[in-house]
Design a protein that fits this description.
The protein is of the alpha+beta class and 208 residues long. The chain has a single domain, classed as Aminopeptidase. It is built from six helices and eight strands. An eight-stranded mixed β-sheet has the order 6-7-5-4-3-2-1-8, sandwiched between helices. Helix 4 crosses helix 6. The chain is globular and about 45 Å long. 27% of the residues are buried.
C-alpha cells in the first residue's frame, strides 16, 4: 500500500481530531490544531496518509480540480485517508515530540514507527541537538519503539497525566552521528517495506 508523510493542513483537522479523541483523554481541540498550523512558529505537524489515485478522469473529479485551481488550493487537496499524525516543536537546540498517534483500527502495522522516524528526520534537518518526548510508564510497546531508535529514559515525571494521574517517562535521544546512522538505516527499511513517500522531513514548512 503506497503511503505518504506530509505536513498537516487545515483540511486535515477534522480527521486528526477524530483520531485524537480515540487515542487520548483529554484530547486536543480543533482550535489547538489551528494554532499549531497557523500561528506557532516552532510547530511542525505531520500526517501519514494512504495514497489513492485522484478521480480527475471523472466529471466530478475534473470539476473539483478546476475549483481548486480557481481558488488556488489545488496543491492543498487531500488524496488519501489519514492513518495517523504527529508533531514536534523546534525550540533552539531541542525538538520536542508534542503528540503522536495512529487510528486504533490501523495499529500494529508499523505506522507509528513511520511517524516517529519522519519526525526524527525532521529534527535532524532542523539542526536539533536532541529530541524529547513523554510516554506513559505503562506503555511498554511505545517505549520499546523509542528505544529501538536510541531513546533512553531521562527522568520519571510523577502524576504527569491529568486524566488518571499516571507517571510518565521523559525519554531523550541525542542526535549525534550514531543516531543519524541508526535513523538512516531504519528509515531506509521502512521506505522500502511500505512504499513510502516522504514530503515532510526533507521539505520546508509551508507557512505563508
Amino acid at each position: 500500500m503506497p503511503l505518504r508523510l506530509r505536513y498537516m493542513r487545515l483540511a486535515d483537522i477534522q480527521e486528526v481530531v477524530a483520531i485524537d479523541r480515540l487515542s487520548f483523554q483529554p484530547s486536543w481541540r480543533h482550535e489547538s490544531y489551528r494554532f499549531e498550523l497557523n500561528e506557532s512558529r516552532s510547530s511542525h505537524m505531520v500526517v501519514l496518509e494512504r495514497r489513492t489515485a485522484p478521480s480527475a478522469s471523472t466529471h466530478a473529479g475534473w470539476l473539483n480540480k478546476l475549483r481548486g485551481r480557481l481558488n488556488g488550493t489545488a496543491a492543498e487537496s487531500s488524496c488519501g485517508d489519514i492513518l495517523g499524525y504527529g508533531g514536534i516543536w523546534s525550540i533552539a537546540d531541542e525538538a520536542h515530540i508534542s503528540t503522536i498517534a495512529t487510528h486504533p483500527t490501523q495499529r500494529g502495522n508499523g505506522y507509528g514507527e513511520i511517524l516517529l522516524a519522519g519526525m526524527i528526520g525532521k529534527a535532524l534537518r532542523l539542526g536539533a541537538g536532541y529530541i524529547v518526548l513523554e510516554v506513559r510508564v505503562s506503555n511498554q510497546v511505545a517505549q520499546s519503539l523509542y528505544e529501538k531508535y536510541g531513546f533512553s529514559r531521562f527522568e520519571r515525571r510523577r502524576r504527569y497525566y491529568a486524566s488518571d494521574g499516571e507517571d510518565a517517562w521523559d525519554m531523550r535521544l541525542t542526535l549525534d552521528e550514531a543516531a543519524r546512522r541508526r535513523y538512516q538505516r531504519l528509515y531506509g527499511r521502512l521506505q522500502a517495506r511500505h512504499d513510502l513517500a516522504d514530503a515532510y522531513s526533507c521539505k520546508a514548512h509551508p507557512r505563508p
